[in-house]
Design goal:
With 460 residues, this protein is of the alpha+beta class. It is built from 15 helices and eight strands.
């Protein structure tokens, strides 16, 4: 029996410390299991900032003693090109630049926008550089700061310089320019003075200190950041990456973290609280009639199969394997959902939760055909994953915890086959199954979920 609660400023004091403690407990358990490096905790201060933000959501599950047993953070609206911006991996390299150029009817308009945005970026950079230097008077100049970061941090994604420069630049662009310029700022982010010179057939004067500093900054990103690995994509994508070119921090939801207590592990709880967060963000996003699509994103350690299964449960099947941070390779997962697809997507996920985990707070009636479809779909997924893990072990390319996951997959397959068999027999004999009774009850006594306004979400 558990209750689902969205954390707010009003109830934060009841749960914040528990969530932060749960992070520590989960981290320590993962280390004991030999899974060190698969989780980096968010911390009490940042969790609180999520609670207070209008763009982020923290949802927890509590037991009968009001003890937090699971938590998830769903984030949206981060600053472009900062550490949390997953979408940047899908807007990278010459293919993306060619895509942007092909969207213009005339090279004249393309060159004009390119030059205009470069000038805006210089203004934003001057502001960001001055902000950073005012916070770090121990450095004699900006070049000294760059050299320090390259030496100390290798300019990885969360290095102080790179994160703050990108944050302050994005902040300046958002506060001083139109949405049109903000959009173009993302499209032309990687354009340099050398690109400008090549397009216009003449050198760009470095007389301006702003240009010189900015080019040093970009060259550091290219030379140290791009060439040395932190934006390396290790494997050729097996999907059409161009369908994610329009993803950005405004129209993307990140499944930031989902953790469950080691003494009450349940994949169902993780999926349930993530769903409630996703549902809230999607409903809010599409309440604006101008929003035509939304992207779901996540990052996870390649060995962290538990997180992989949660992400793929929600359709995040396309992924890139990247060096997201120095010595911290990650898989970045993504999927795209249009406005037209969103109602059916939410309905399908709620059906899966009802059939597989008995989560049906709205009392939604689930047909026998739907139950059979959900069970068969999940069975196909578990069998495919079982085969993949078995092959990986045979080839010596398995993940940590490989044997454990193979065993758990085998057990899940047996249970799903048994449920399917029982359901098929009960349908043919016109009797209601125990599964029917569970998923069709008007109220599930084991679940109590309320949103920030204190109202039930109700049927989708």
């Amino acid at each position: 029996m558990f209750k689902i609660v969205e954390l707010t400023e009003q109830n934060e004091s009841n749960y914040l410390n528990q969530v932060a403690q749960l992070e520590e407990i989960v981290l320590e358990q993962m280390k004991k299991d030999g899974r060190d490096g698969q989780l980096f905790i968010t911390g009490k201060e940042d969790i609180s900032s999520y609670i207070h933000s209008k763009d982020n959501t923290v949802v927890v599950a509590t037991d009968t003693n009001d003890r937090v047993i699971a938590a998830t953070y769903i984030t949206q609206g981060q600053m472009p090109f900062t550490y949390n911006d997953i979408t940047k991996y899908f807007k990278y390299g010459p293919d993306y630049q060619n895509y942007i150029r092909s969207s213009y009817d005339s090279d004249l308009f393309y060159y004009k926008d390119l030059l205009d945005v470069y000038r805006c970026k210089l203004q934003a950079f001057a502001f960001a550089r001055d902000q950073v230097m005012s916070e770090h008077s121990e450095f004699k100049d900006f070049s000294d700061f760059i050299n320090h970061e390259l030496y100390e941090n290798g300019f990885h994604e969360k290095s102080e310089l790179r994160e703050k420069i990108n944050q302050y630049m994005s902040q300046y662009i958002a506060e001083h320019f139109s949405e049109d310029i903000q959009d173009k700022y993302e499209k032309f982010y990687w354009i340099t003075a050398n690109d400008i010179a090549a397009y216009f057939g003449r050198d760009v004067s470095y007389a301006s200190g702003d240009i010189e500093d900015y080019e040093k900054y970009l060259s550091s990103q290219y030379a140290e950041f791009l060439q040395n690995g932190p934006l390396t994509i290790y494997e050729e994508p097996s999907f059409d990456i161009s369908k994610y070119y329009s993803a950005n921090t405004k129209n993307s939801i990140e499944l930031d973290t989902y953790i469950t207590s080691p003494d009450s592990r349940s994949s169902g709880i993780a999926r349930i609280i993530v769903f409630e967060g996703i549902k809230k963000h999607m409903q809010k996003h599409f309440a604006n009639p101008e929003n035509t699509e939304i992207y779901l994103c996540s990052t996870l350690h390649r060995d962290n199969l538990s997180s992989k299964y949660v992400s793929e449960f929600f359709g995040l099947r396309d992924s890139l394997f990247v060096n997201r941070r120095q010595h911290r390779d990650r898989e970045v997962h993504i999927c795209k959902i249009s406005r037209e697809e969103a109602p059916q997507y939410l309905s399908d996920i709620s059906d899966k939760l009802a059939v597989l985990y008995e989560y049906n707070p709205s009392g939604k009636t689930i047909s026998d055909d739907t139950k059979k479809h959900v069970l068969q779909e999940q069975l196909d997924y578990e069998e495919a994953e079982f085969d993949r893990l078995t092959r990986a072990r045979t080839l010596g390319q398995g993940f940590k915890g490989n044997l454990k996951f193979i065993d758990s997959k085998s057990k899940k397959i047996e249970k799903l086959e048994e449920k399917l068999k029982n359901l098929t027999n009960q349908i043919s004999s016109s009797h209601y199954s125990e599964l029917d009774d569970i998923t069709s009850k008007p109220n599930n006594p084991n679940v109590d979920y309320q949103n920030k306004e204190g109202e039930d979400y109700g049927e989708l």
